[in-house]
């Protein structure tokens, strides 16, 4: 495996179950809710999409904090690295409160836009009214993952996520159909289960931060502003993902309830796949950030080569497994024959796209670890607007269904792959020192 491979996997392996836990829970959630009928499953797909968009839109709390904390940790400044987590948590709490208020004010129109069927939209709104209260908890956990990955503290997140997901899963199995003396809550039972697990996880991350950090817990506005500068690029990058994924959901909805239900299951499985790939990318973030923080440019480039090798291997493995088991997976995930048939189509597209996507994820991790967020922002937006989105609009217009959606994903991934390979082959991302490039640029602009 080599020394670099061992170091990469020493981070990727503990991160992998943490990343995979949420999509696995959502798949279980989908299976349990799906037994209630395809309309409930379609409603869960719409509601879960909104929650996913809102949670992942703030992923700079994880990725940005990892990049900043890893550089400080590599430079021997662990206390400052942990302090990044304190300030990221203040951002998480503040943004979470605003988001909850905003969703409650717009929940009806929001679900009606995403769901073509009025009953599906109403059920999705009922689910979301409960589940959205978990957004501040999701953001606090995201900030916690960020600073812990930066200082390479990996066991605590694993324990916290296992406990939270365990509570969510048990709650879903019990509350949705109603077991024993517990009344059947149906779809809303899924939302309450989701919320309970998120509250437990967030509480654990807050306790870990208080115990680790020995300094002041008050907001430090200079650090918060620096985090937000990096965050702007990451938010724009993530928004381009979410806009196209939302359009993909409307394209699936236009093809019928069965296609929308199958699209929801495919989305959750794709989320599981990409998070498996992201385990290597997060290892790259932590190690590349630490190497550049310590001034080791050659080591950073060697890590990039190792990431390419291992990401490609993971992508090929996932593609082969998907092709071999697409039919039984579809039957397992859905008790409805029509939904299962449409899911086979989506899994075929997934098997084709996952190999180049693996390389994109790995090299994204390298560049995020280097703090090269501005480049990733620009190239991702271009690929979304001029690659993915046009194919999705054509799919909705011509009725290509799930086939068109996965063609669009393929174009999106190919454009991003060209961009990240070109960047990593050059030297502009190899910025050395404890501070991320965005912070240096902002400080230079003010002097």
UniProtKB/TrEMBL annotation:
<dbReference type="GO" id="GO:0015297">
    <property type="term" value="F:antiporter activity"/>
</dbReference>
<protein>
    <submittedName>
        <fullName>MATE family efflux transporter</fullName>
    </submittedName>
</protein>
<feature type="transmembrane region" description="Helical">
    <location>
        <begin position="269"/>
        <end position="294"/>
    </location>
</feature>
<comment type="similarity">
    <text>Belongs to the multi antimicrobial extrusion (MATE) (TC 2.A.66.1) family.</text>
</comment>
<feature type="transmembrane region" description="Helical">
    <location>
        <begin position="234"/>
        <end position="257"/>
    </location>
</feature>
<feature type="transmembrane region" description="Helical">
    <location>
        <begin position="306"/>
        <end position="327"/>
    </location>
</feature>
<keyword id="KW-0472">Membrane</keyword>
<keyword id="KW-0812">Transmembrane</keyword>
<feature type="transmembrane region" description="Helical">
    <location>
        <begin position="339"/>
        <end position="362"/>
    </location>
</feature>
<keyword id="KW-1133">Transmembrane helix</keyword>
<feature type="transmembrane region" description="Helical">
    <location>
        <begin position="400"/>
        <end position="422"/>
    </location>
</feature>
<dbReference type="GO" id="GO:0042910">
    <property type="term" value="F:xenobiotic transmembrane transporter activity"/>
</dbReference>
<feature type="transmembrane region" description="Helical">
    <location>
        <begin position="44"/>
        <end position="64"/>
    </location>
</feature>
<dbReference type="Pfam" id="PF01554">
    <property type="entry name" value="MatE"/>
</dbReference>
<feature type="transmembrane region" description="Helical">
    <location>
        <begin position="85"/>
        <end position="107"/>
    </location>
</feature>
<feature type="transmembrane region" description="Helical">
    <location>
        <begin position="191"/>
        <end position="213"/>
    </location>
</feature>
<feature type="transmembrane region" description="Helical">
    <location>
        <begin position="374"/>
        <end position="394"/>
    </location>
</feature>
<dbReference type="InterPro" id="IPR044644">
    <property type="entry name" value="DinF-like"/>
</dbReference>
<dbReference type="InterPro" id="IPR002528">
    <property type="entry name" value="MATE_fam"/>
</dbReference>
<feature type="transmembrane region" description="Helical">
    <location>
        <begin position="158"/>
        <end position="179"/>
    </location>
</feature>
<feature type="transmembrane region" description="Helical">
    <location>
        <begin position="127"/>
        <end position="146"/>
    </location>
</feature>
<dbReference type="GO" id="GO:0005886">
    <property type="term" value="C:plasma membrane"/>
</dbReference>
